Every structure is written in C-alpha cells, then in structure tokens.
Amino acid sequence: MSFFYNTRALKKQLLFFVLIVPLVSFSQIEIDTTLKPDPLVSYDAKAQRQWVDSVYAQMGAEDKIGQLFMTMVFSSQSKQETEAVKEQIKKYKLGGIIFSKGGPVRQAKLTNSYQKESKIPLLIGQDAEWGLAMRLDSTYAFPWNLTLGAIEDNDLIRQFGRRLGAQTKRMGMQINFAPDVDININPQNPIIGNRSFGEDRVNVTEKGLSFVRGMESKGVLSSIKHFPGHGDTDIDSHNALPILNFSRARMDSIELYPFTNIIP
To answer: What is the per-residue pLDDT for 12?
Structure first.
C-alpha cells in the first residue's frame, strides 16, 4: 500500500513513524491539553527534523521504496506466518503493518515483536470503522455509521471518535483507516450500506468531520474513504470493478462533496 510518491513526501513520512499525526488537519480543532498543540511537530522540532534528515540520508533507494509499503497481518496467524512477516520487515525495510482479524492481546504482542525487527519504527494501522471489534475479538463495538448518521448532535460523533481514538492508540496503532464517507445513494449497494452515514451529502460530511476531529484529538491518524461514487454502485468492489457513469457535474456536486469539504 503506497501513501507517498516523491522524495519530499517520503521524508515527511518518516515523521509518521515517531509521531502520531493527522492525515486531515484543521485550523480550529479541540485537542486534549495533554497533547501538543501541533501533533505533527514534537516538543523539540529542531531535533525532530535532524533525526528525520539523518535517517533519510542513510537510506538507499531500496530502503526508501520499502518504506512506501504496509503488509497485512492477521494476529490469528500461525507462527510460521509471523516469522515470514519478520523476514519481510528485515529484507524489504517495510514502512508499516496493517492488522486484520485476530485478538487484542495477540496483536499487541505482534506489534512489539515486529517493531523490534525494524530499524525505523513501523507505522501500525487497522480498519476499525465501528471500533476495534470490526477486526478483533473481545473488544468493544460502537454503532455503525448508519446509526451515527441519525444522531442530530454532531458533538456526540466527535466524542465517539475520541473514544475510538483512545482505544486505537492504546493498541499501539497510529492510523485508523476510517471513517467511511461514501454517500449511500443506491439501496442495492452490496458493500457500503450501513457503513455509510447516509444518503445526504451534508450530513455525511458533518458526521465524517466530527468523527475525524474526535480521533485526531487523541493523536490518531484518520483516512476518509472509500472513493467518490462507491455509495452508488451495485457491485462489490472486492470482487469486481464498479463503473461510474456519472457526469463531472454530478461528481463535483455529490460524490466529491465530503472529500473536498473534509480534506483541507
């Protein structure tokens, strides 16, 4: 999975491995007083930059390429599979791990184990749209987005994001690949459905923004998804390629609305 595509961006990525920072930032956002005013910058910004520059200067081309990738890991996997991932980390200098299904204790142990294998701290992430229970057993499940979309008080969504962010951070993760801001227009959609905040573009945007602000107030990265138009397909994109026969005007006014209003 690649996030960055140029040298300057790659240097910025190294910051992500030692800091918990937002993918989406805001000029006005409520942040815990226990957090730094700008989570992108450490208490000693000069030392931070020197560390990033020194590490980057020692990296060869293959090391830099490896930093662009995250590999998927199941904490329910076998010991043999665990060892194989360790070899990938050492051989390819992977940038991160995205955890899938398993259990919280097993995942925490694997996180510590994998971090020991990497010279540069790994970026740890997971899909946890409605809580860690989306992937992990014996963890708390929050309501799905469709339920949250029916709540009128957006501050409750922000508080939900804070709770989810705190649990994500406690698991040693820096990024949650959420929230889902697809607009669920098509009732025949087999994959989005109740993962969406609903069919109204404004409500979806407001709920998504509150979700993101809540998570980021706890120092956890967010990632709005999936892609514009996915809420109006009748094909599961895991199995086939949906085709969007929309005009540019339609895409701009509806499909792109949450993305253009959440991403600065």
So the answer is: 45
The pLDDT assigned to 42 comes to: 72
Rounded Cα distance between 90 and 131, Å, is 31
> Measuring CA to CA, which residue among 223, 117, 211, 138 is closest to residue 173?
223
CA distance 168 to 160: 12
- Crossing angle of helices 104-117/79-92, nearest 10°? 30
Instruction: Say if residue 22 is preceded by a cis peptide, omega within 30 of 0.
Output: no
Q: Which two tokens mark 1?
A: 């999975």
* Distant-in-sequence, close-in-space partners of 139: CB < 8 Å, separation ≥ 6: 104, 131, 132, 133, 167
DSSP tag of 97: E
Answering whether pTM is above 0.85, one says no
Q: What length does the chain have?
A: 264
SS3 at position 203: helix
Distance CA 184, CA 182 (A): 6
Q: How far is CA 109 from CA 88, 102, 172, in A?
A: 18, 12, 10
Report the distance separating Cα 199 and Cα 184, nearest Å: 5
Q: What pairs with residue 175 in β-bridges?
A: 125, 221
The rounded average pLDDT for each run of 10 residues, N- to C-terminus, in the chain (264 residues) is 38 41 36 45 85 94 96 96 97 97 97 96 96 96 96 97 95 96 94 96 97 91 92 93 92 95 88
